[in-house]
Amino acid sequence: MSAPLKGKVALVAGATRGAGRGIAVELGAAGATVYVTGRTTRERRSEYDRPETIEDTADLVTEAGGRGIAVPTDHLDPAQVRALVDRIADEQGRLDVLVNDIWGGELLFEWDSPLWEHDLDNGLRLLRLAVETHAVTSHHALPLLLRHPGGLVVEVTDGTAEYNGAHYRVNFFYDLAKASVLRMAFALGHELGPRGATAVALTPGWLRSEIMLDTYGVREENWRDALERVPHFAISETPRYVGRAVAALAADPDVARWNGRSLSSGGLAPVYGFTDLDGSRPDAWRYLVEVQDAGKPADTTGYR
């Protein structure tokens, strides 16, 4: 089917840029109506002060074949989230896919700073943005998602449960945030499974987000120019890759087999048969363990 999600309604919370935008666009490409939220609009920017907007994301969803609807939302404000869900209920009468991709921590965490040296206010705000927002959104959205059987909740994080369980991730606050989101999917799996819905945690690999490309001083068109300085960046992937993973999950009539599980874009690609935009299938988390963390020279042979 060219539009397997036609008639389905999705909410991608945190879709201004990065993985959220890639997920929203691929859900649109599969025919879904996609509500996209964030704090940066064409009229007002968040503290990120970046040019990407939720209206731009909505336009990309529509151009891909779906229907994109931008709704400015601060997911730390329960009243705004409640109003968002009420609007979806009024306009659509259903919610089939909820993607919690809210993050907002790039400007707040300090690389390799131990807890006692890290700015406490920044660390606590990071936890609020990365964890509390997911809980607030699910609290208000899940009753609507449960109106119809077969709903899907995707908790987007960084790292699989296996990898994060064995590796310290950046610092105390970052590690705790990403582990918490993994556990959210596990807990929701227990609560949603008996009620006919599915919850999963999903991680992209090394994501070529807008911010990451800017950090390395490259664009998507010439991203390989960064490999001289960051050789292992060769395993990186576009945000559309994890988007295709979500679209595949949402279209799978047997998606319940994944309930409560920790998944990755690279791990799902061979199962569902999708690729990244260049036709490759990067498997970043296997690469990190077997090549990068093992201290071997960068070589993606057999990993993409």
TrEMBL record:
<dbReference type="InterPro" id="IPR002347">
    <property type="entry name" value="SDR_fam"/>
</dbReference>
<dbReference type="Pfam" id="PF13561">
    <property type="entry name" value="adh_short_C2"/>
</dbReference>
<protein>
    <submittedName>
        <fullName>Short-chain dehydrogenase</fullName>
    </submittedName>
</protein>
<dbReference type="InterPro" id="IPR036291">
    <property type="entry name" value="NAD(P)-bd_dom_sf"/>
</dbReference>
